[in-house]
Amino acid sequence: MQQAIIDRIETTRQQVTDWRTDQLDDLQERHKALVKQGEAALHNGKGTLRNLEANTLESARDLLSWASDTLGPRASFLKRGREALDEALVALRSGHSATLPVVDFDQLSIKKILPFLHDLNSAELRTLKAYETRNKARKTLLSELTHLIEAASATPAEA
After folding, report:
1. Predicted structure pTM score
2. How far apart are the first and last CA of the chain?
3. pLDDT of residue 159
């Protein structure tokens, strides 16, 4: 009789231990899922904030362009402001994948990225180059971006 009680206690103890282990495993999985969701939300929030900042800089640049057009030759000093805002936009947009001019840039192969590049302006190409330099640094892509940036900057000089 005592052995039956001891066996029953051991069986119950093992069941409680197994249940506790299962619960702990479940909690750890939920924790990992919540952390992943939190990281995704943070990433999306940073991207949204960068987009808002970029929109603000673009509005300021557009305002400077309007002022320059309105003032004519007397507004040559505004050109430096527009150029500074363009560079600030490149730096801002190259800091987060959500603000890049090519959607899912990080997930695309070079072969899939190249066709998009010919439709981009110089600032967008510089943005991609700065981002690529800091991230994957794919030599073929960096070389093509450099070539296209040089071609884009040579085009206005020839006109």
Report:
1. 0.64
2. 104
3. 36
